Amino acid sequence: MAHLKFQWEAPTTRTDGSALGNTSITYRLYEDGVEVVRNIVEPHFTLTNIEQGARVYAVTSFDETSGLESVPSDPVTVNFVKPQAPTDLRVLLLVDS
Fold it and tell me: What are the distances in angstroms from CA 34 to CA 1, 56, 94?
């Protein structure tokens, strides 16, 4: 199974340009539009045990003081595909003489 490490730039201002100040900001990670992790404290996160397939991820900032959530970041698409199986498997019989 695969692991994904996400990293992003932490915001320093609100959408109106004012400073965040001492506000407690956490982050939320979305997979295909569904929240999969909340209360991420640092601007990075590792998601483990990713199954095969394509997924779209985005992250939001969440102001713990006011309860306001940002719009999602630009999405990133990840596609995990299994490799082909080996071919031309043969058994070699060795005979002791």
Answer: 21, 10, 56
pLDDT in tens, 53-66: 999 999 999 999 88
Structure tokens at 24: 């407690």
Question: What's residue 69's pLDDT?
Answer: 96
String of b and e for 22-49 (b: at least 16 CB within 10 Å)?
Answer: eeebebbbbbeeeeeeeebeeeebebee
**Which of 17, 24, 4, 6 has its CA nearest to residue 72?**
6
Tokens representing 22?
């001492």
Encode the chain in three state secondary structure.
CEEEEEECCCCCECCCCCECCCCCEEEEEEECCEEEEEEECCCEEEEEEECCEEEEEEEEEEECCCCEECCCCCCEEEEECCCCCCCCCCCCCCCCC
Task: Report CA 20 to chain centroid distance, whole Å.
Answer: 25
